[in-house]
Amino acid sequence: MPSSSRTDSAPSGSPLVEARLRGVAANPGAPSGVLLRLLDPSARPAWRTLCEGRALPAEVVEAVLAHPDRAVRGAFARNRYVPPEQRGRLVDDPDALVRARLAGGPRPRFGTVEALPPDVLETLMTARDGEHPDGLLTAAEIASELDFSQQIPHEFHRRMLHHPNPGLRAKAAGQWLWLTAAQREALLADPEPAVAEAARRHRRHLDPAAMEADLPEQDCHARNLLLINYAVSPAVAQRCLTDGRDLSSLARNPHTPREFLTRLARDPDPDVRERVAARADADPALLAELARDPVAAVRTRALLHPLPRTRPEQRAIDRIIGLPAERVGPVGEMFVEPEPGWYEACASSPEPVLRRVAATCSRLPRDVVQRLAEDPDEDVRHILAYNHPLAPPAIVLDAFLATPGQRPYLLTLARLPRTGLGPLLDHEDPEVRALAAADTGLAGPPVRELTDPDPRVRRAAAANPLLPLDLLERLLSGPSLPDGSPPASASVSASTPASIPAPVSADPALVEGAAANPALSAERLHALLDGSGLPTGGSRPVDTDR
Length: 546
Prior knowledge:
mainly alpha; 49% helix
């Protein structure tokens, strides 16, 4: 991007200029020509907003992917607003940090994440050190970022078992605990030595003697992992019971020898007894005993899930029970999901916990969704709002009001209402007022909200296209931020309520919001960039998409 002389003396590093650049970068009406100018190094403060925080036109995407600065490409690698196919083009980026950010997934990390394309997943999962000149991060470290990113769908994990790439078949052995006997035998007999070796290594997970040899003595994550998931020898189980140690983990482990479960079911710790009561393989007589337990939580868990049970059903309940809706959030798919009919049966249960479990299922039919949307238990309604694409907008808004921790995710959903929010302008919570201040269907412009004590509300109000243009100009070109623009009107227009004082532009929140206002023309946006000292690139681009 060729440089040119600056258009005025605005200090390029001032908070107000940086706020103005971020606002232009976020402006949903900004055409490609404006956005391309923001890729200049002098607009670095706007790069994260531009490349990570919004969808981008195709022309800008191409420029971002080819940008020489890894900060631009790395920010785009984390963009949750662009299709994963676009981010996936960075899979062979020469910079390891960019590849790691692609593998780590979109930021902020909340809610569900779209899966990367299969060929991108294959490249990241089978990469080897030395394939790129930048050795700052190893291929294994980058692959580890991918493992925890939620960008690998379980369907891809299942296809790995038969993938023509032996590297993926070897990784499929890592799912050993969930594989069938036939799948395990196929991996052990794989003609590729590396695959067979990986299978033999993971076979140790179901070998009680191997687990006993591998079990660390000190308390740590590895010890807990083994005691919850891997085969347990009678000697290990006896030692845990003798020492009164790790009993909750032992009670959860599906491979704990059955002769120890009766002792665990009668342990003084109610958490241990509750874990036994939740087991998919619970003995009917023992379960009946736990159903009479003096502790309500143990009785509830014993009675909640009738026999026969499956382990996927148990895990579906485990991921909900005991957690308030505020902490549950969108519940992603499980490696092995219960049958949809089981979720539908849960939706008709008199137990609120089971109806909450049902609300995690995004495959429920419309009539079941409608019934759960009217459920008397608010947690059921909120969990449904997080998870189901057919959740009515009214309950999504209710979840936004009631569960602040889920708001970043809810704001990404198209089903969250953006209009009809006028009654919320006086809400005590500033995040709610900010949502309302952005409502383009308000009865009048949100001028009062420009003086709200919270900057998020002021920013949202300044970005609302209902504001009169002359008031918007005052926010953009007041005396504290010279930009070479024609002077704004000295007074507010007749379209602005006279009883409301017009703010000045010394507030970065107002400047940023005003610069993000889609009512601004392409010419005005270019003038803002001129006034911020950005190069014009010779003749100004023609913005045909504005």
